[in-house]
């Protein structure tokens, strides 16, 4: 759904809710009064879903604007060839957009985290402020039922909710990895002529485009399976091939090394640096929000206890006592909601993984810079290919950790 469509959905839902409330106030008819809280609940769910996705797009544009100086500092020199300028290397085919799939996954998780808090709020409002037999009280009870049904329905129907996002990112990363394997002539392209490499490339890209989760897991392995079922790691294959696998030394190994340094190692390092910073800021904000809600809940509970102890409630609860009761009942679920969102984002674990991967890439960058100072030849080509396998192993390991962190078999309902 495009941004403009989401905005019009929110505007349309707001106008419909306003009209419904106006009809309930002016006519005081039971159907309008009873259904007003239900309409308000539906409006909140629409606002929550579309509002998060709109805010996400705005935050994404803002991050790109703030990170522009860092991205411009990475920009390779004009004399460094792009990967797609080399023979047999194709640009990554257009596919799914991981950002949209990530946003949909998180929007559903946030909605599921908010539903229990809204249900408790509806029950508390009906109990504290409204008459049990009134139309408006009945409406809040129906709204609570709607929220609980929506929560159960979301959990039951959202099996493997992260799989589209995980599959999309893994496929995109493997497409990108294939381009650099072909650039360095390692893995399935080791020791092959340009014509053979082209055939292998087409076959692998076709399989990768249609691969499911199980096939993608097989693709991530840095090894080849022989006819007898044994596997040989690509690192071993590089050194076992020796000079026999070197067939494009005259094409400019040093030039390929510079391309790999800028477009693979340095670019990925920048990505992990920016991603780790984003995760750390998100974790900090959610952590501070959780602490603030906990402190507010403690303060409200103490105030409510003092109010009850003073006996100032009289024959019935005062407005102050009712508001404090509402806050006392609503703040604990609100704290649980923030903690659930914090667990959904898993920002702390992702930031730690990104930082660790970036440190490994910096070490690989230092090694490659040292290799660039050595004279060209077969030994340099072998050392470069060995380093490429180590770099791809580092990035594949990060992808494996990322999948373990973000993958969910289902959303947790116990929020």
Describe this protein's structure:
The chain is mostly helical. The protein contains 13 helices and two strands. It has helices at 3-27, 30-66, 68-74, 98-128, 135-157, 163-184, 194-209, 213-219, 234-241, 253-310, 319-345, 347-372, 378-406; strands at 223-225, 231-233. It has a two-stranded antiparallel ribbon. A hairpin with a 5-residue loop joins strand 1 and strand 2. The longest helix has 58 residues, at 253-310. It is elongated and about 90 Å long.
A few lines on this structure:
With 415 residues, the protein is mostly helical. Helices cover 76% and strands 1% of the residues. It has 13 helices and two strands; from the N terminus they run ααααααααββααααα.
Helix and strand arrangement:
Layout: H1 3-27, H2 30-66, H3 68-74, H4 98-128, H5 135-157, H6 163-184, H7 194-209, H8 213-219, E1 223-225, E2 231-233, H9 234-241, H10 253-310, H11 319-345, H12 347-372, H13 378-406
Antiparallel strand pairs: 1-2
Helix pairs in contact: 1-2, 2-4, 2-5, 4-5, 4-6, 4-11, 6-7, 6-13, 9-13, 10-11, 10-12, 10-13, 12-13
List the helices and strands in order. HHHHHHHHEEHHHHH
Q: Mean pLDDT, rounded to whole units? A: 86
* Beta-strand segment tally: 2
* Structure classification: mainly alpha
Specify Rg, calculated over alpha carbons. 29 Å
Spatial strand sequence of the major β-sheet: 1-2
In helices, the fraction of residues equals over 70%
- Let me know the largest β-sheet: 2 strands, antiparallel
Coarse morphology: elongated
Give the terminus-to-terminus CA distance: 28 Å
The helix tally amounts to 13
Regions with pLDDT < 50 over 5+ consecutive residues? none
